[in-house]
Specification:
The complex is a heterodimer of chains A (about 110) and B (about 110). Chain A is mainly beta and about 110 residues long. Chain A has no helices and eleven strands. Chain A has strands at about 5, 10-15, 20-25, 30-40, 45-50, 55-60, 60-65, 70-75, 85-95, 100-105, 110-114. In chain A, the strands form two sheets. In chain A, strands 2, 4, 5, 9, 10 and 11 form a six-stranded mixed β-sheet that branches. Chain B is mainly β. In chain B, about 0% of the residues lie in helices and about 60% in strands. In chain B, strands 2, 4, 5, 6, 9, 10 and 11 form a seven-stranded mixed β-sheet that branches. Chain B has a four-stranded antiparallel β-sheet with strand order 1-3-8-7, with no helix packed on it. Chain B starts with a strand and ends with a strand. The chains are: A mainly beta (about 110), B mainly beta (about 110). The interface of A and B includes residues 4, 32, 34 and 36 of A.
Chain lengths: ~110, ~110
Amino acid sequence: DQQVKQNSPSLSVQEGRISILNCDYTNSMFDYFLWYKKYPAEGPTFLISISSIKDKNEDGRFTVFLNKSAKHLSLHIVPSQPGDSAVYFCATRISNFGNEKLTFGTGTRLTIIP
Amino acid sequence: ETGVTQTPRHLVMGMTNKKSLKCEQHLGHNAMYWYKQSAKKPLELMFVYNFKEQTENNSVPSRFSPECPNSSHLFLHLHTLQPEDSALYLCASSRQGTLHFGNGTRLTVT
C-alpha cells in the first residue's frame, strides 16, 4: 500500500509558464515533506522542504504548498526553465531518533518545452 | 567531487556471482542508507545505519548483505541475485533532516 502517491507520471509545460507537481499522502504522522529532483544518470538532489507546522515555503522560483487536511502537497515552479526538465520525487518523513527515514513517491517526469 | 560517491557506476553480474557495491561520504554525516529504485516504483528503503549500527532492515532478502565499517563507508554485498534484482541502487547519508544521495550503481543481473 503506497503511502505517498504521485498520480501524474509525466507533465509537459511551456517554458516561462508555471509547473505544478502534485503529491498525496496517507499517513498523518508524517512531520516533514520534501521534494527531490533527479536528472538521468545522477542521484536525487534535495530541492525544497516544508515542515508540517507550515502551509507554504518559498525558495526563489520554487514554492511548496502543504494542505494537511487534504493530505496534499504541491510544488510550483515559476517561471519554468528548460533546466527544470527532470524527474521530481515527493518524499515524506517521520523523524525517528536521528534516522531520517524517507518515504518516496514514484516520481513525475517534468518536461519543459522551449 | 560529490559528497556521496558510489562505485561502480554500472555492474553486470550473473546469478551465481558475488559482488559488492561501495559507498563513501565526505560530509561528516552519521547516518547512511541503501535505497533501491526499480522502474515505475518508488525509491525503496533497504537498510539504515546510524553511527555504524544497523537500525533498519526493511525486510530485505538475505542475498543482500550490508556492511558499515565506519560512519563514512557503506557496502552492499551481493550474492546469488535474481534478474528481478536489476535496479538502480542508491546510497545516501544524512545528519539532520535532508538525505544526500550518490549517483547510484546501475545493476543488471543476467
